[in-house]
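Researcher: I'd like a structural prediction for the single chain below. Treat it as a standalone chain; there are no partners to consider.
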Amino acid sequence: MASPLAIYKLIILYLLSRTEGEIAMDRISSFLLEKGYVNFLSLLNTYAQIEESGLVRSRIAQDRCFYSITEEGRQTLSMFRSELSDEIIGQAELFLTREGAVLRNEQSVRADCVPTEGGMYNVILKVLERKEPVMEIRLQVPDKSVAEEICRKWPEKNEQIYHTLIENLF
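Model: Treating it as a single chain, here is the predicted structure.
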């Protein structure tokens, strides 16, 4: 039987493999903590280990960390998936079903701000469909607070902006 730490890693890999995208760290954490699988310190250790070992990739956006599974992570999951009980798989599937719309939105609407050498900030706003950009807007703004505010509003305003662009361009 696998150690608890190995089970935590496998649960994370399973969740990531089933979304075909990325999941915010706080969403994964809430699932694992809510179900009582892990305590907070063990969870932080688990994240560090799976990233260091190349099983997942991370991306920081809007002060949140998003994880996606790597090919090595997929191979590891396929070798050790039998260590996950039917109960754990069922709970993970229920979580993915219940949170599906939120997870899809977080995967398909992205906003990043990147500092430039000249002290400005590039804001990169995207709407993705099946990991391909449907719309991408790049802006250069004078300071970090403006860039962060644009990134914060993007998830709630992207559809309105898309429709406005389409109406005005066609």
